[in-house]
Amino acid sequence: MKKWFTAFILLLVIGALAACSSDSSGEKAKESKEIKIGATAGPYSDMVTKAIKPGLEDLGYKVEVVEFSDYIQPNKALDNGDIDANLFQHSIYLETFEKENNMDLTGLIIVPTAPMGIYSNTYKSFDEVKDGATVTIPNDPVNAARALNTLKDEGLISLAEGTDPLTVSEKDITENVKKLKFQPLESGQLPRSLDSTDLAAVPGNFALAAGFDLLTALTLENMLDQYRNVVAVKSSDEESQIAKDIQSVVESDEFEKVIDEQFEGFGKPEWMKK
After folding, report:
1. Torsions phi, psi of 176, nearest 5?
2. CA-based, 20 to 30 A from 177: which of 48, 78, 161, 212?
3. Which pTM was predicted?
4. Percentage of the chain lying above the pLDDT 70 cut
């Protein structure tokens, strides 16, 4: 009888130890649920911190936001596995960068993005624009096309029918109602150009960096989704649980609420308008 009692006690002790071990393993698994998201310093690191990080934390993740100061290192860090995802680039840039650098990255989901705006210290509306006014526009083909499409939407210029809006250039202008004079500049110089020009087409990230309120633009571009920023991951991780959880957070009502309250003027992607 005493032997059976001793055996029973041993079983209880072993069971208790197993339970403790199980609890400990569970805690370790929970603690290892970590994620690093890279973003360029500014509005998109803010978006990760304010709109994405809280939702992931609610799912049990420990989230680290890694800030970058250029447009090269975030993709290198992602490709090397130093971070799990990044947010700073649109799909056109992503596709070009990965091909040129032999990477295999994927845009997971499009997020609201600061649009290009037409700003002026001279005019309060396009109706006031005088003939021969000077417009500074980005000197790179992608952003120059965005500027021309925006001016077309406002009726200031006409573009040749059938022109691809992603590749349109000055040579595609068929009518220039106000006889606008175009002055290409590096995007970083466009905000400062307002002191000496009539109109300036400023990409959203440069406008925000210069302290502009997006809503003070004479108009904001009707942005194509190809120009909106994406959360990117390695293609091999596209179906991972982390990727699925990031996507679910971005698609949540809580994410949209933060965007509406703290990112005024950011253009929403088509999927958010449905």
Report:
1. -125, 85
2. 212
3. 0.83
4. 88
